[in-house]
Amino acid sequence: MSHHTIIIAEAGVNHNGSLELARKMVLAAKAAGADYVKFQTAVPELVISSIAPKAEYQKETTGKEESQLEMCKAIHLPLSDYAGLKALCDEAGIGFMSTPFDLVSIDCLADLDMDWWKIPSGEITNLPYLRKIAALGGRVILSTGMSTLAEVEQAVEVLEKGGTARENIILLHCTTQYPTPMEAVNLLAMKDLDKLGCGGTGFSDHTQGITADIAAAALGARVIEKHFTLDRTLPGPDHKASLEPDELGEMVRAIRDVEKALGNGVKEVADAERPNIEIARKSIVAARDIAAGEIFSEENITCKRPGNGISPMEWDRVVGARAKRNFAADTLIEL
Which helix (H) or strand (E) is 315 found in, with range? Predict the structure, then answer.
């Protein structure tokens, strides 16, 4: 069995509303080895009311003066830009994804033939949104931040009833805090999500660094999503909790190593270690010179390397047998 973790480089809105920066992020994600680069598509006025406050982390990273709506209007690309980004991804050889945050954005992205629909944690209780995604009948990756298992199950049931097969849904465990402290990650919740019988589980990560992502891969995550930026010092709400391109590449390489290390799950002799069996194991040998006709006993035989003779597991069969020839000390015993 081979295991391939789908790695999503989450560009999100770290392009800060610049198409040029977004295009550079596509190429950086490709160079890092990610399977997909993912953006966030929205018509801010359809997502955020004029009275919606910023999250605390947004106030810390972008200030308290502007509203959440004003902030998002400044950092989102117009819907017309996404077709060009999809074309660039096709040309560069990396998968394109974008998360829609409203119904109009779903319509925009539906024309771009994405492999997966990515539903963000904040929409897990948005019934009209879930129904619209479900009706498209595509494959879905559902982030589950800020939710209970019961809420996730309810969302999965909506998707399933609406036309998305349960086996075509991957659930991402997520903690919606930027950055997420390690003690709030709770990676073992992936096992809880497995109980819902979907097409697999994974991890959408907002921690700093790559430790949690490597651990998620070791737990068998089918998908790992990680924010990245071209420069962590850029203004904007998500840069602080994002990897820079060289760190993204390091994460990809580490996850690919974990995939190799996971193996097939069968306890067997690896080809790489087979030559060392004779070197490391022991055989029954003469502890001293033994004359023909002498009885093998606890006193005149012992176990030493190499392991190309009678196995010490045959000890009881050898003890009490008679030597049919002379054996010099340290030579392999034969029966």
Answer: helix 315-318
pTM listed for this prediction: 0.90
124-177 per-position pLDDT tens digit: 999 999 999 999 999 999 999 999 999 999 999 999 999 999 999 999 999 999
**205 φ, ψ (degrees, to nearest 5):** -105, 135
DSSP secondary structure string, 200-264? -EEEEE-SSSSHHHHHHHHTT-SEEEEEB-S-TTSSSSSGGGSB-HHHHHHHHHHHHHHHHHHTT
What six digits make up the tokens of 45? 């006025």
CB atoms < 10 A from the CB of 39, how many?
27
The neighbouring-strand residues paired with 116 are 139
Q: CA nearest 75: which of 143, 19, 8, 119?
A: 19
- What confidence tens digit (pLDDT) does each residue in 272-298 have? 999 999 999 999 999 999 999 999 999
Length of the chain: 335
Q: CA neighbours within 13 Å on the CB side: how many for 258?
A: 24
Q: Are 71 and 62 in contact (CB under 8 A)?
A: yes
CATH of 269-335, one of 1.20.1250.20, 3.20.20.450, 2.40.50.200, 3.90.1210.10: 3.90.1210.10
